[in-house]
């Protein structure tokens, strides 16, 4: 029974939320719509694209993308329209321009800053421990303690 369940899980195809009434009759336009939908985030589900989401807003976005394609818009025009309407948050892969550049660059800069601080701190500790050696009285006392 467990093997059958495992086999069924392995061969199960991914289920998309696209409803049959949303699918375009032109296969080329439908393929373009699916490609565009892969890059658009469901604003309700956060990290799902609109093809995988069952939310009403995702359905509205899928229909909007298909309407724009049927109207003759290019892929870039459709994406620009959706971004202008819903903001750049709707993109699953945000651009590296404008204020987003700060977000893209700040992570590596903070990591580099932390590594420099750690290096300076550890370097300072190393010099402190090398200077702190035992005097003669302490060496004798240590030798006595180790004999016991």
Notes on the structure:
By secondary structure, this protein is mostly helical. The protein has 2 domains: 79 residues, Helicase, Ruva Protein, domain 3; 48 residues. It has 6 helices and no strands. The longest helix has 32 residues. Possible subunit of a heme lyase. This is Cytochrome c-type biogenesis protein. Keywords: Cytochrome c-type biogenesis, Heme, Iron, Membrane, Metal-binding, Signal, Transmembrane, Transmembrane helix. InterPro entries: C-type_cytochrome_biogenesis (IPR051263), CcmH/CycL/Ccl2/NrfF_N (IPR005616), CcmH/CycL/NrfF/Ccl2_sf (IPR038297).
Please write out the topology:
Elements: H1 2-11, H2 27-38, H3 56-70, H4 75-86, H5 100-131, H6 136-147
Helix pairs in contact: 2-3, 3-4
Brief characterization of the structure:
This protein is mainly alpha-helical. The protein has helices at residues 2-11, 27-38, 56-70, 75-86, 100-131, 136-147.
- Class from helix and strand fractions: mainly alpha
Beta percentage is under 5%
Count of individual helical segments: 6
Main β-sheet, in a few words? none
* Uncertain ranges: none
State the domain count: 2
Keywords:
Helicase, Ruva Protein, domain 3, heme, mainly alpha, 148 residues, transmembrane, 2 domains, transmembrane helix, C-type_cytochrome_biogenesis
């Amino acid at each position: 029974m467990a093997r059958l369940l495992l086999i069924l899980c392995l061969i199960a195809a991914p289920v998309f939320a696209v409803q049959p009434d949303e699918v375009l009759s032109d296969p080329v336009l439908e393929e373009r719509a699916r490609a565009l939908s892969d890059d658009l985030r469901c604003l309700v589900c956060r990290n799902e694209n609109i093809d995988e989401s069952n939310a009403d807003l995702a359905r509205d976005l899928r229909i909007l993308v298909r309407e724009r394609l049927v109207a003759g818009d290019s892929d870039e025009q459709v994406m620009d329209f959706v971004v202008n309407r819903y903001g750049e948050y709707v993109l699953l892969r945000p651009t590296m321009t404008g204020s987003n550049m700060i977000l893209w660059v700040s992570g590596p800069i903070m990591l580099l800053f932390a590594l420099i601080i750690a290096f300076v701190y550890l370097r300072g500790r190393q010099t402190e421990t090398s200077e702190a050696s035992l005097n003669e009285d302490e060496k004798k006392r240590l030798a006595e303690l180790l004999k016991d």
